[in-house]
Amino acid sequence: MDKSLYIAMSGAKQNMLAQRAHANNLANVNTEGFKRDFAQARSMPVFGEHFPTRAYAMTERPGTDFTSGSLMATGRDLDIAIAGDGWLALQGATGEEVFSRAGSLHIDANGLLRAAGGELVLGNGGPVALPPFDKVQIGVDGTISIVPVGGPPDQLAEIDRLKLVNPARDALMKGEDGHIRRKPDMALDGPEPVDATVRVEPGFVESSNVNAVEEMISNLQLARQYEMQVKVMRKADENAEVSARLMQNL
Questions:
Q1: pLDDT tier at 41 (50, 70, 90 boundaries)?
Q2: Which residues of 124-140 are buried (b: 16+ CB within 10 A; e: fewer)?
Q3: Is the pTM of this model over 0.70?
Q4: Is the C-alpha dihedral spanning 152, 156, 160, 164 positive or negative?
Q5: 3: which DSSP letter?
Q6: Taking the CA of residue 8 as centre, how many other CA atoms within 13 Å lie in the half-sphere pointing to its CB?
Q7: Are residues 103 and 164 located together in one domain of the fold?
Q8: Containing domain of residue 125, as a range?
Q9: Rounded to an integer, what distance in angstroms lies between the CA atom of residue 243 and that of residue 155?
Q10: Contact between 33 and 71 (Cβ < 8 Å)
Q11: What residues contact 213, with CB distance under 8 A and at least 6 apart?
């Protein structure tokens, strides 16, 4: 049997995988700080007896688009957006350090500062914990200050400072959990060092960098390609049936 049937089948499968990547981007078009994933296809040679024109298709995710999204004003005291390059350091579910640009923060019942996904926000000495307060303020350098309960409104007490880091982009990767972290082969022996040059915009959050129109067009193109692969599979099946009938008549 001609290997075109299997090649078309692999092409259809890879089209579905590429559609899944673009659909995930599209689903997160309104997710704060989300970074879209790239998707690309490349040909793979067929091993064994085959026609030299035959090649398998393979879809892969070559990386993540780390460009910044637009800033949206919220006016909320605990909302921040990273201005320019840089990341907010968080403590992941397994205790490892991960990075994010989603700055919609909140305080839990124990006074711990958490990100939108529930991760602990890291400060100078670990997770940030805030005592009871009447007002909280985050400075452009990440400094967290409060007005204690019953204290004068013009007297701010500095509590901690957000851990802001700026590792090289080529050293970063997005995990299956959606968190940004260092690549295993570029991991550091200790925690990521603080970058004092990173600045934040209080009262703002960063939007997703996904272009909805672009993702929809890519999905439509992939759907057309999938239909073409299915047609090739049908034609290969028809050719096999014709060949079988010819062999029976010999």
A1: low
A2: eeebbbbeebeebebbe
A3: yes
A4: positive
A5: T
A6: 16
A7: yes
A8: 71-131+159-206
A9: 89
A10: no
A11: none
